[in-house]
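Explain this fold:

***
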Amino acid sequence: MKKGFTLLEIIVVIVIIGVLATLGFVQYAKTLERARGMETRRLLGQLRQAQLGYYQEYSAYATDITLLAVNAPTACTSTHFFSYSVIGTSTADGVGTASRCTTGGKNPDATNTYVVNVTWATGVWGGTSGYY
């Protein structure tokens, strides 16, 4: 009686390992992108707090992100995954927007380009992905 594995058994094991590795990689990529979204929640939250303080002082929202004391890049850089902007007028409730960078050294997969936003007065989060 010979001991060992048949070629069919080895192929089945390799296929199972390949399927598990593929599923694991997809979940890893989703988790990684969700973690990158933490930058957005942190910086947009800081921008919202700065806007509320600005509104209390000047009775209007800042229309220029540089008027706020938050280090949020307005263009894609190698140190951030998003670029940030302020949308709206000074008298109406504005929105802070973070757009996923596709340049600047932190390129996502083409399917991972999305926008996250927060409304200043209400604090309602929204966007084009589920990462907010």
Remarks:
- The mean pLDDT is 84.
- The chain has one domain: 7-127.
- Residues 44 and 96 are 6 Å apart (CA to CA).
- The longest helix spans residues 7-58.
